[in-house]
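hey can u run this one w/ phosphoenolpyruvate bound, need the C-alpha cells asap thx
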Amino acid sequence: MAKGRRFLIAGNWKMNGLKKDGCALAKSVAKSLKKAKGKKQPFDRLVCPPYTLLSRVADAIKGSGVKLGAQDCHVAEKGAHTGDISPHMLKDVGCKFVIVGHSERRTDHREVDAKAKAKAEAVIEAGMIAIVCIGETLAQREAGRFISVNQRQLKGSLPAAATAKNTVVAYEPVWAIGTGLTASPEQAQEVHAVIRAELVKSLGEEEGNGIRILYGGSMNPKNAKELLAQPDIDGGLIGGAALNADDFRAVAAGCK
Ligand code: PEP
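ok here u go:
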C-alpha cells in the first residue's frame, strides 16, 4: 500500500445474524479490534450488518473505533418506496459507509452500473462514504475480458464527485466470492493496478492515488497477509471470514 493511504478492513455480514448472535459478534469484533489508547493502528475497521441489526450493532461497537456501514440503500432521501431504506436513514442510525453495486445486488436485483453510481452519489450527498463494488465473472475472466470488464464497470459506477475522502472501490471477482477460490496476489494486483490507473486518469493524481481499493473474494486469515502486501491493495471487503471475530481480527492482522 502506498504512503498516504490507510488500510480499511470491512466486514460484509450479508443476510446473516439475529439479535443474539449479531450482537455477540459485534461485541467480540469491538473487543478484539478496539483501538488501543495512544497507539496508532495502521488500519480502519468497519462492520456492515443487515439493516435489522444496525441500531444494535451501533450500540455494541460504541467507543471501540470500529465503524458502522450498510450493505445497500435507495437513491432517494425519503418517499413512497416500500421496503427501501434511504441514505439519510442510514446516516441517522450511525452509518459512515454504504456498500453499493455488490455483485449479489447486481445478480439478485439486476442492478446495473448506472444504479450503483446513482446510489454512490446519494450516499456521498448524505455525508457518508460509498464503497463501490466491481468485478468480473468467471466466464469473463476465462474469455480474457476481465480488464475491460472492470474498466467499464468502474467508469459506469464511479460517482461523479468521487474523492479519496468520499469513495472506496472494492474489486471483487465474482468467481471468488463465497467460493473459497481467491484471486492470487498477482491476479488481484494486476486488476488493482488497472483500477488505480483509471482512477488517476479520471480524477487526477491526488484523488486517484488517494482512493482506497479493497480486495474482496474469500479473503481469510491464510491469504490476507500476501494480498494486503500488494502495492495497490488497500484493505479487504470480507464476507464469510467477517462472521467470526477471531478470523476477522486475523485478517486485519495482515495489515502491515
Ligand atoms: C463479499 O461478500 O463481499 C465477499 C467478499 O464475500 P466472501 O469473503 O465470503 O467471499
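The two ends are 9 Å apart (CA to CA). anyway lmk if its weird
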